[in-house]
Design goal:
By secondary structure, this protein is α/β, with parallel strands linked by helices. It has a domain at 273-409: Succinate dehydrogenase/fumarate reductase flavoprotein, catalytic domain (Flavocytochrome C3, Chain A, domain 1), CATH 3.90.700. The chain is built from 16 helices and 21 strands. The protein has helices at 17-28, 44-47, 60-64, 71-81, 88-96, 98-107, 160-174, 225-231, 249-256, 275-278, 298-306, 318-322, 326-329, 341-348, 354-366, 457-475, and strands at residues 4-13, 33-36, 53-54, 113-117, 128-131, 150-151, 177-179, 182-190, 193-201, 204-216, 239-240, 261-262, 267-271, 282-284, 313-317, 336-338, 388-391, 411-415, 418-419, 426-428, 434-440. The two termini are 15 Å apart. The mean pLDDT is 95.
């Protein structure tokens, strides 16, 4: 029995944020579009994310909260925070189009409250529409005017599902068709052009012919241990930030037709240290030494900790611990307490005198209200006094079962590298030429990132360049889809 054959103008592989954006734009431009999703429903890793959208340049939420911003100011911050080696061409377009992109999200039915969550956190417990994502911490305060750009839908805590609900609805309303439980296995090549996709649906072979092109939006490769070992071995043995299906399949399909990849070793990691605690105390490595200003975007202290001799410890005094608002404490409590620093050193297995030296130096400067060693903002700098407590980030945030729990690494991550694309999502070959009929967006591509990361730039980058890819493929010249 011959496999089933479907024919559309555009075939989008993967129904996360980038796939939804590409499908919505392509369908709105008049193309017939099908979204292929290997899971039983849309959403992917995007739906399980925090839901932050990194947007700026003067959005309505920023203005309502009293902040002035510009594309140039946004670019200055992001080029530093996402670097070194950020893709400046893509980044410039992203910043210049950010206000319009914010309005596109609102047109998809996603609401943002005009209020700021003004406290250090991984994830606000409120519905506030704006949060800081490192813009107000050194060294970025010396590079760009501090303006918050973390835009969040009106949802408490993790809000990726709210973002995806709006994007799914927008794609469907634009006319895109969805085929779930359908796993793409290979690209169909017609001469020198990608003309479709082969897939499996409940054990049956299916062919999807694409008159205008295929858009790969299948996510990164953190769930593929072989690809990690080959390209990003730093993540081996750590937790994974994904829905379990970020296996690099789209990247591999692109490579099978000669696509180039870029920055495959670049990764993002999150360390389960509590920002509200760190700013009131300090983060030290396995030698009892500070190594970062603790008020930075949490991804920055996570990357710093990732390369330190470990384990790392969150150290705080009694006054600092008691000052943490309950909503920002996340149920975290200390595993160690001591009246003196020598006692705490012994409990943690730190070198004798190390904490005394670190806290002593910190306190000498804190008495004058500043931190010249790492430049923590003065609002958080004060003299630390005993009794002392230490929290082990390796135990995570969950308040249940922490006592007696075997520590993991404390780190979870995902990949940032992928297919090399133009600003319009055209996938480039090893010779640098666009592969006809093949487009990609989201974490399946190298995107705007260099070696740095800021929350909200995956959903932001994926949707922004997903939209551009959707428009580009819809406007491309159709081919006679006669591939077999």
């Amino acid at each position: 029995m011959s496999p089933a054959v479907h024919e559309f103008d555009v075939v989008v592989v993967g129904f996360g944020c980038a796939g939804a954006a590409a499908a919505q734009e392509a369908a709105a431009a008049g193309a017939s579009v099908v979204l292929l999703e290997r899971a039983s429903g849309a959403g992917g890793s995007s739906a399980q994310s925090g839901g932050e959208l990194y947007l700026g340049g003067g959005t309505a939420v920023q203005r309502a909260c009293g902040f002035e911003d510009s594309a140039d100011n946004m670019f200055a911050y992001l080029s530093a925070a996402l670097g070194p080696h950020a893709d400046l061409e893509k980044l410039r377009l992203y910043c210049e189009g950010s206000v319009d992109h914010f309005e596109w999200f609102r047109s998809c039915g996603i609401d943002f409250l005009p209020s700021l969550y003004d406290a250090p956190t991984w994830m606000p417990p409120t519905q506030d529409g704006l949060m800081w994502l490192g813009e107000n911490a050194w060294p970025y305060t010396t590079i760009a005017t501090p303006v918050p750009r973390g835009h969040r839908p009106a949802t408490e805590g993790w809000a990726g599902h709210t973002v995806m609900a709006g994007l799914i609805s927008a794609a469907e309303q634009a006319g895109a068709t969805t085929h779930v439980d359908t796993r793409a296995t290979a690209l169909v090549v017609d001469g020198d052009r990608v003309g479709g996709v082969r897939a499996r649906h409940f054990g049956a072979d299916v062919t999807y012919r694409a008159r205008r092109g295929v858009v790969l939006t299948t996510g990164g490769f953190v769930d593929n241990e072989v690809m990690l070992a080959d390209h990003a071995p730093a993540l081996l043995g750590h937790g994974k930030v994904s829905d379990g299906l970020d296996d690099g399949s789209g990247i591999a399909m692109g490579q099978s037709v000669g696509a180039a990849v870029r920055r495959m070793s670049a990764v993002e990691v999150a360390y389960t240290a509590l920002p509200a605690l760190l700013v009131r105390g300090m983060l030290v490595n396995g030698r009892g030494q500070r190594f970062v200003n603790e008020d930075v975007y949490p991804g920055v202290f996570s990357h710093a900790a990732f390369h330190q001799p470990g384990p790392c410890w969150a150290i705080v005094d009694e006054a600092g611990l008691e000052a943490i608002p309950a909503a920002d404490a996340w149920g975290v409590r200390p595993q160690h307490a001591a009246e003196t620093l020598p006692e705490l050193e012994a409990d943690l297995g730190l070198p004798t005198g190390s904490l005394e030296a670190t806290v002593g130096l910190y306190n000498r400067h804190a008495a004058d209200g500043h931190d010249p060693v790492f430049n923590k903002a003065s609002k958080w700098v004060r003299v630390l006094e005993g009794p002392w407590a230490a929290v082990d980030p390796r135990l995570g945030f969950s308040p249940e079962g922490r006592d007696g729990q075997t520590p993991g690494s404390g780190f979870s991550g995902f990949t940032l590298g992928g297919l090399h694309t133009t600003v319009d999502g055209e996938v480039l070959s090893l010779t640098g030429d666009p592969i006809s009929g093949l487009y990609a967006a989201g974490r399946a591509t190298s995107g705007i990132h260099g070696d740095g990361y800021v929350s909200g730039t995956s959903l932001g980058d994926g949707t922004f360049f997903g939209r551009r890819a959707g428009r580009a493929v819809a406007e491309s010249a159709p081919a006679d889809a006669t591939a077999t």
